[in-house]
Design brief:
Blueprint: H1 13-48, H2 50-75, H3 77-86, H4 93-117, H5 130-144, H6 147-162, H7 167-189, H8 200-223, H9 241-271, H10 277-313, H11 317-344, H12 346-353, H13 357-389, H14 393-416, H15 426-454, H16 459-473
Helix pairs in contact: 1-2, 1-7, 1-10, 1-11, 2-4, 2-5, 2-6, 2-9, 3-4, 3-6, 3-10, 4-6, 4-9, 5-8, 6-8, 7-8, 9-14, 9-16, 10-11, 10-13, 11-13, 12-13, 13-15, 14-15
Length: 474
């Protein structure tokens, strides 16, 4: 049996920071392992040829937005589980996971079917090499088959993270990475009797990797003693419309928010194409660097969701406030480290990506902007982590739309294309990003401040569990 914790005791700031860090480090390493899978795909597809690499890149651009929508849906599980654990309602966790799994896996099947039709869009683009489109099409078909597996992977991950156990995220993140490398080798290059599929083999390897990993994850949660009090998928439960709708109200805004954000960044790369390859390459370098550094605050935000969710499950505002203070302290430390890494190593970082002088000049300016951009970016994602613990997904959705599509993109296009000033190209979009994230961070901070000042719970936090309790008891 798992030891019950007293969620009403308020730890000191240093104790809270240590607890947050214990949750954080397995998440960040697991996230790095999953990110490395994309790097492995790129390197090994590139070894098969430029056309194969280009095909995988095109296919991936159609694969990630729908997948991140599903990941956003499953993220809602973590605060639900944390709330139940904090409220000492462990016996309700399997029923809640059942409802969430039906919703997430149902959407995953729809998304997988939709992805099989996305290759039709390739024919709208005029390309010099038809084989590149063939690789992209076959890659997308292969990874579409793995969409339900990816969804279940993230359901299980959100489940154990909501329980305050983040070590499995590290274990299975590296398990997937270790499996992916030999499977890529086998299916890209046709080893051990397998057909040589080239870039499309990356898709086959990815799908096989995720299903093997998910099977191991299922065995783990069914056998490990930590989960004895919270076993899931042991039985089915009657599905009530109210419970499904309640989960959708919480999860859909999170899924849509993630998709909106990713679509925004994907669109910028396309809008920069008229400015030439040097501009696009420099923007890609800055975006890649910021993405790698973003893993730290993103992982800390997950830890914040867990701790805040537990505290609010116990209705301990003091605990939630201490978590917020700990998150701010750790977030500032990570930001200072990231800022110094970028500012002091700009030339070295750029040289790892490109030796082109034109790219270097543009990238230097963008990386300087990126170093400043990291502060509002970290602030807004850490705030989102706290608000997820309060189940305040409605605010997250509204602010995401406002920040990216009302402020960020219009301002970025205006500055980049010189509608009111000289053309700033990529720098214009980065100024737009900074403005968008600064506004988002400010609104989130005000929202969190008002929550603690008024101590008025968000409607979703009050309603969600009441609806589920009534529906599941009926």
């Amino acid at each position: 049996m798992t030891k019950e914790l007293n969620f009403s005791v308020v730890p000191t700031l240093s104790t809270e920071m240590r607890r947050l860090f214990r949750l954080f480090w397995p998440i960040v390493l697991g996230q790095l392992a999953q990110t490395s899978m994309g790097v492995v795909d790129t390197v090994m597809a590139g070894a098969a040829g430029t056309v194969e690499l280009s095909g995988v890149a095109i296919g991936g651009s159609f694969f990630w937005p729908p997948l991140l929508f599903l990941i956003g849906l499953s993220v809602a599980i973590s605060p639900i589980v944390a709330n139940l654990r904090g409220a000492s309602k462990a016996h309700d966790i399997p029923e809640n996971i059942h409802v969430a799994s039906v919703v997430c896996l149902g959407f995953s099947i729809l998304v997988a079917i939709l992805m099989c039709f996305l290759p039709k869009l390739y024919h709208l683009i005029e390309v010099p090499n038809p084989h590149m489109i063939e690789v992209a099409t076959n890659y997308l078909y292969a990874v579409a088959l793995g969409i339900p597996g990816f969804t279940l992977f993230n359901i299980l991950r959100s489940y154990w993270e909501g329980l305050g156990n983040t070590l499995p995220t590290l274990i299975f993140g590296f398990t997937a990475l270790i499996l992916n490398i030999p499977l890529n080798y086998i299916f890209i290059f046709g080893k051990f009797g397998a057909p040589a599929l080239g870039g499309a083999g990356c898709g086959v390897a990815t799908t096989l990797t995720i299903y093997i990993t998910v099977v191991l994850m299922l065995i783990y949660v069914q056998k490990h003693p930590f989960f004895a009090q919270y076993r899931i998928f042991r039985k089915t439960y009657p599905l009530k419309k109210e419970a499904l709708i309640s989960y959708l109200k919480l999860a859909l805004p999170l899924g849509l928010s993630t998709t909106i954000e990713v679509t925004c960044f994907s669109l910028v790369s396309f809008l920069l194409s008229p400015f030439g390859p040097a501009t696009v390459a420099a923007h890609s370098i800055a975006l890649n660097v910021s993405g790698l550094l973003f893993i730290c605050p993103l992982s800390l935000a997950s830890a914040a969701t867990i701790r805040t969710g537990e505290a609010m499950g116990a209705r301990s505002w003091e605990r939630a406030l201490r978590t917020t203070q700990g998150v701010i302290a750790l977030g500032l430390i990570f930001y200072v480290i990231s800022f110094l890494l970028v500012i002091l190593n700009r030339e070295l970082i750029i040289s790892l990506y490109s030796n082109d002088e034109a790219v270097r000049i543009i990238a230097l300016t963008l990386l300087t902007t990126c170093a400043c951009y990291l502060l509002p970016d970290s602030t807004q994602v850490l705030s989102i982590g706290i608000l997820r613990g309060f189940k305040d997904s409605k605010t997250i959705f509204i602010v995401t739309v406002l920040a990216y599509w009302v402020i960020g993109m219009p301002l970025g296009v205006t500055l980049a294309y010189g509608f009111i000033t000289e053309k700033l190209a990529a720098l214009g979009f980065w100024f737009g990003f900074c403005a968008a994230l600064s506004v988002a961070a400010l609104i989130y901070v005000i929202r969190i401040y008002r929550l603690f000042k008024t101590r008025k719970l968000p409607k979703a936090l009050m309603d969600h569990q009441e609806i589920l309790d009534e529906a599941l008891k009926a």
